[in-house]
Amino acid sequence: MKKIFYATCFVVALTSAAQAQQTAPQVYTPEQEVYINVERKPQFAGGDSALFAYIKEHLEYPKDLRTDARALVEFVVRADGSITDAKILRSACKSCDEAALKLLNNMPKWVAAQQNGEAVSVKQTLPIYFKVGQ
Questions:
Q1: How high is the pLDDT of residue 80?
Q2: Whole-angstrom Cα distance, residue 134 to residue 66?
Q3: Residue 117: helix, strand or coil by DSSP?
Q4: 111 closest CA partner among 40, 38, 44, 33
Q5: What's the number of CA atoms in the CB half-sphere (13 Å) around residue 127?
Q6: How far is CA 51 from the centre of its chain?
Q7: Structural element, H or E, at residue 35
Q8: Helix ranges (DSSP H) in the chain
Q9: Is the distance from CB of 50 to CB of 44 less than 8 angstroms?
């Protein structure tokens, strides 16, 4: 019985060691840091009114929309202004969520956030509203 126990422990130890060797260590770089609070928030080029106009023009309403809905989307505005890591925080409906993510993933670059005078990446949230009849 002891032999089986020691053999099992040996196999588990070898498997863990092999997995640890296969995983490359993550190297931290300041460019990858994503802030939540910054001195100056990122902004859609042209400001909020331009953002609302962009959404109105480019948001594709689902054909199966029967009631007003709101999707809450989280994304990262990178230091170069690009949008990455878009995901749904609060779902409206499957087709609304897909439309909201498509809108974000195709958005033009924003004006990046600033921290200590340097452009930085920051996490943002944005509600996307779907109104029946629009």
A1: 95
A2: 11
A3: coil
A4: 44
A5: 6
A6: 18
A7: strand 34-35
A8: 2-22, 48-58, 94-105
A9: yes
Per-residue pLDDT of the chain (134 residues; tens, 9 = 90+): 444 433 333 333 333 333 434 444 444 355 578 999 999 999 999 999 999 999 999 999 888 888 999 999 999 999 999 999 999 999 989 999 999 999 999 999 999 999 999 999 999 999 999 998 76
Q: What is the DSSP letter of 31?
A: G
The whole-angstrom separation of Cα 12 and Cα 92 is 44
Place of tokens 């989307």: 73
To 10 degrees, the CA torsion angle through 127, 132, 104, 74?
A: 30
Q: In terms of Cα–Cα distance, which of 94, 120, 78 is closest to 86?
A: 78
Give the pLDDT of residue 114: 96
Contacts of 92 (CB under 8 A, 6+ apart): 69, 70, 71, 100, 128, 130
3-state secondary structure of 67: coil
